[in-house]
Amino acid sequence: MSLKIRRLSGRNDSMMAESFTLERFVMAQDPLWGRVLSELQAGSKRTHWMWFVFPQIQGLGYSDMARRYAIASGEEARAYLNHSILGSRLREATVIVNSLENFSVEQIFGYPDNLKFHSSMTLFAQVTDGDDIFTRALDIYFQGKQDNATLMRL
Asked: Which InterPro entries match (predicted)?
């Protein structure tokens, strides 16, 4: 068994996060995090941060940004959630979106970011065995339906 597989199967959260290059997300989020929260609280995403705040599985986007911030596997998604900064930020942002029940997902994110949000919520609901936060987002904005393109790549 390789060291990387041993680390992942051992479920040591800090070691698991080290197996992936997650700092790319932290570096992208840090200068914009206040803006991200403000835009979400207002119910209208206006600037460009979707790729690294609500990442999706690799293979769905083809731009440089989509490829740079794609999550390669379920294991990397778990590591993202277990990362001390990224996991709490993803949950914080998702809780805010879930509180905007009077807004449609299209109003909050616009197109095509509404599709990216669907993909991201599907990814993280899958790797957390249906975490209430991510499943709730799917229930509120997508009638509980998961994104098939994401499921096919997991």
From this structure: DUF1810, Rv1873-like_sf
